[in-house]
Amino acid sequence: MASEISGSSTPLSSTTTLSSPSSPHIHKITEVPLEDPFNNPLSSVYVYDVAEQVGFGTLTKEWAKTASNGTSVVDLQTRPGAGLSLVGRLSQGTSLDALKGTTLTAYTTPSGLALMAPSLPYLPPATPNTRLVIQVPAVTPIGETLALSPTLSSLASVWSILPENVSVLLSSTPQQAVDFASLSYKVANSHVIHLFDHHSTSREIGHSIIPLRSTFGDGLTIEEALQKAGYQLYEYLGDENATNVVILLNGPLALILKAAFKNCSGLGAVVVNALSPWNEETLRSVIPSSATTVHVLDEVPNSVTQGNLYVQVFSSLWNDAPKRAVYSYRITPTQTQTFITAAGAFLHFIEDISHIEVQDVSTPDVKKVLLFSIPRSSLSPSAAFLEDLFSRKAGISSRLLTDHDVFSKPGGITANRLLISRSNTVDFVPISAPLPLDPNSPGHSDFLGILDQSLLKSHSILKHAKKGSIVLLVTSWTPVEVLSNIPQQVAAVIVERQLSLYIIDIKGPIQDTVQNLLFELVFLRFFLGASASEPTVLQLARTTFGDVIEGVPLVKLGSHAWSSLQKVSIPPLATPSESPSLKEFEANAIAVEIPEGQTVVNGARLSSWHDAAKHLLFPAVFTPQYEGDSSSNPSLRPEASETTFLITCTVNRRLTPLEYNRNVFHLEFDTSSTGLKYAIGEALGVHGWNDEAEVHNFCAWYGVDPERLITIPVPGDDTKMHTRTVLQALQQQIDLFGRPPKSFYTDLAEYATNDVDRYALHFIGSPEGSFTFKKLSEKDTVTFADVLKKYPSAKPGIELLCELIGDIKPRHYSIASAQSVVGDRVDLLVVTVDWVTPEGSPRYGQCTRYLAGLKIGQKVTVSIKPSVMKLPPNPKQPLIMAGLGTGAAPFRAFLQHLAWLTQKGEEIGPVYYYFGSRHQAAEYLYGEEIEAFLLQGVITRAGLAFSRDSPEKVYIQHKMLEDSEELAKMLHDNQGVFYLCGPTWPVPDVYEALVNALVKYKGADPIKAGEYLEGLKEEERYVLEVY
């Protein structure tokens, strides 16, 4: 297994894009015993955050904790000028590194190197004892989906500014990566940048790595060091008499060409292993004299950027004889991603530019296995079990690559690609070449395993199965239930491609290791094909596991695996119907398992208070920069798409009597110096907090220290990270006491260690559990925290739990003030939401509870949301406003603004105000202001309905019936506007009252009257804001 060691060892990571539970039966491949920086007491390793976010550097930091030689590992932030700190460490002066001599190692990514590059020209000359080595895992998130790509496009502008004393090496295979990493420390008179393929090959499991055995002397150049290791600056491959030659940097695309050009007439390729120093004479010597056309492929950020490789090649061949045509091809990140994910796309591109037919890379002797699973589930190690099994067999080669998608499904989804072949019979190409995860895949896998039944309903994964191949679904469904649960588009793929669908239920009350063995036995049955028999399969498994596994006889497991397998026949679809669209798998995360048992995904981890201290000590580095018209602070809620503001509570006054059973309260906030502006009728989005005491209680029960730090990537932007305490995350960001959706039960089931809990959670999340889910959600009103306590064996790590739950959504409240009147202030009218569950437990609305508890001077994070509640453009238009309870809030803003207009001498139209609540003495909200508006003539008529104050209940629709003639005239003749704000229940009665008014006084029949009101909705003259 390749390992992540800097210095003379390999930079390859021993982690995959998914960390799996360990198994005592999976052997560890010994790390390459090469010299590393921990053997040199004066060496230092600098890990930039972007490197750790792609899974490189985390293990180095862990190993440094136990290093006994004083080696330092330093965290650095990526920003413009990021390389200056390294320059300073190597420069003469007070630097201890410069005085005593040391080799500094830095980890960064292509995008991080691009920010570091302007500082590198200031590096002092390299010496045998003082130099810089930068290890660069070539993987970059691109596009809106943040898909991981091996593109080097971000370095297009970097190559030309690198100084002559900086050498650049590029590797593609695991062996090359190890060798070039070692060579980086053998070159004494040059600083070195080494880029290696971390997108795929360096993360593969299953390779035997042979350390360099050559003896390297002092003073070697890059070219001499490469030659002693068995490499060249420029490697030629293909037809020795080629007429067309492709030149490109070493990487996954070069590996594809190497395999494709073995038997391709007329085509050759030059793979650049060292971009700097550039040797024109060596390049000319490797290009065959028969070549008439040279095609240079440059990875660039866009099609208008000129690549540096073309400039170098063109200048080298300018005066060369014979004359050759040199063409430039600019490969953008989108093209690179297409070449990597779409089968044959890159070779078709080569055909188009060379006009020579190129055969696709053929892998007939390779068995291609694709497994989809859920992270950290009981079956997630299955791919590692299979790779381990075949790696033990003489003459068999197995390669495993794990990719992870953390965005398309809460908790993530994992794709394991496993290639099995006879040793040394297949050209080494990236696993994505024979088994791509193409969104438009025609099917490539010989065996496709779906290890969680929910994935069949959420993701389009059967498209990756080759026609006529095997699909194995691990499920608790019966064949009949499979037919009723799978989407029709999935069934159509099965029928169209003639796939053989098998199901088996192996997630029973047995140990995880036994479950994985059961899956392995079923896989072997299919892998051996016609020669498979129960004794044969057991014999193969016995060599790895023995006769008894976790107390269960192997024979018994074999019998179960043989008898429980069922084939599902999918009938042809009579008529295709609409079905929910399925998501695509996109590799966008790399996970690292550290010794403490924690999993770090894209840099998210639990950490100490030191990380937060850095944010306080160096705000210029960590605080997001903002350029805008207001003083809004983007660090308030960096994950929120809307602009947020920090306002101050100045008034929190209860409007209803203390003895009354409803707490309706009035809030005022000071917005001065915040830049917050709002229009009449808009809503205020409040980012409420969970109750601190409840969060502390949950942390104590969950066994997590509330003061520990958790670093979480900001959704949608991998360059920003939250670093906060667990308490802050659970109180301010994570919706711990919100209501869980059905999918949460299914996702949580994968973390249950108790079988009863696991089955119960799976059942509630299944179609059969709809009644139970409805009871839990609507009657018991359980929260995320309640579910976790109800099924205590399901305890994902706190960082995973945060992702499973998601963020608190802002609650929106109609603004009860007009900024034209109150200035730097915003008012709200709120009623607390509380109830009692059938078990007698009190429940509170998350945000109303937060607002009710606000203290004077307390800061609140808010945002503004537009609303349909807008005043008409002409203030003379009649207004009919109907509000129930806190639905009076926007009309208070309306009336304040209208009163302000009258004070300025402007004429306003008639205003009819209808208000309803239970008791006038307790809930006549803003009653004094209403009476004042009546006296001022702002309100023409007020229809007040207090339903519990009279023997017969009176509601606002009854008051409207008293004014039917006036209402009909205003709406029909005078361009009047009607508004209703409050609960939904009076909407039909209010609608009927208006229809009756139009029928009685405007001669319309009920149907025409209803159509007229519907037309008013389109004109924004019949406006409802109900909840």
Question: What features would you describe in this structure?
Answer:
Its cofactor is FMN; FAD. With 1027 residues, this protein is of the alpha/beta class. Among the domains are: 37-228, Thiamin diphosphate (ThDP)-binding fold, Pyr/PP domains (Rossmann fold); 235-354, Rossmann fold; 879-1026, Rossmann fold (3-Layer(aba) Sandwich), CATH 3.40.50. The strands form ten sheets. A seven-stranded mixed β-sheet has the order 2-1-3-4-8-7-12, sandwiched between helices. The chain has a seven-stranded mixed β-sheet with strand order 16-17-15-18-19-20-23, sandwiched between helices. It has a six-stranded antiparallel β-sheet with strand order 32-29-36-27-28-33, with helices on one face. β10, α8 and β11 form a beta-alpha-beta unit. The longest helix is centred in the middle third of the chain and has 17 residues, at 512-528.
Task: Sum this structure up briefly.
With 1027 residues, the chain is α/β, with parallel strands linked by helices. Helices cover 31% and strands 22% of the residues.
Topology of this structure?
Blueprint: E1 44-48, H1 49-53, H2 58-64, E2 72-76, H3 84-90, H4 96-100, E3 103-107, H5 110-116, E4 131-137, E5 140-142, E6 147-149, E7 166-170, H6 174-183, E8 191-196, H7 222-228, E9 234-238, E10 244-249, H8 252-260, E11 267-272, E12 274-276, H9 280-286, E13 293-299, H10 308-317, E14 325-331, H11 333-341, H12 345-354, E15 367-373, H13 382-391, E16 396-405, E17 413-422, E18 445-450, H14 455-458, E19 465-474, H15 479-485, H16 488-496, E20 500-504, H17 512-528, H18 534-545, E21 548-549, E22 552-553, H19 554-563, E23 566-568, E24 591-593, E25 599-601, E26 605-607, H20 609-617, H21 619-622, E27 644-654, E28 664-670, E29 683-686, H22 692-702, E30 709-714, E31 717-725, H23 726-733, H24 742-749, H25 755-765, H26 770-779, H27 784-790, H28 798-805, E32 811-814, H29 819-822, E33 825-831, E34 834-836, E35 842-844, H30 846-852, E36 859-865, E37 879-884, H31 889-903, E38 911-917, H32 920-923, H33 927-936, E39 941-946, H34 956-962, H35 964-972, E40 977-982, H36 987-1002, H37 1006-1018, E41 1022-1026
Parallel strand pairs: 1-2, 1-3, 3-4, 4-8, 7-8, 10-11, 10-13, 13-14, 15-18, 18-19, 19-20, 37-38, 37-40, 38-39, 40-41
Antiparallel strand pairs: 5-6, 7-12, 9-11, 15-17, 16-17, 20-23, 21-22, 24-25, 26-30, 27-28, 27-36, 28-33, 29-32, 29-36, 30-31, 34-35
Helix pairs in contact: 9-10, 17-18, 17-19, 18-19, 22-23, 24-25, 34-36, 35-36, 36-37
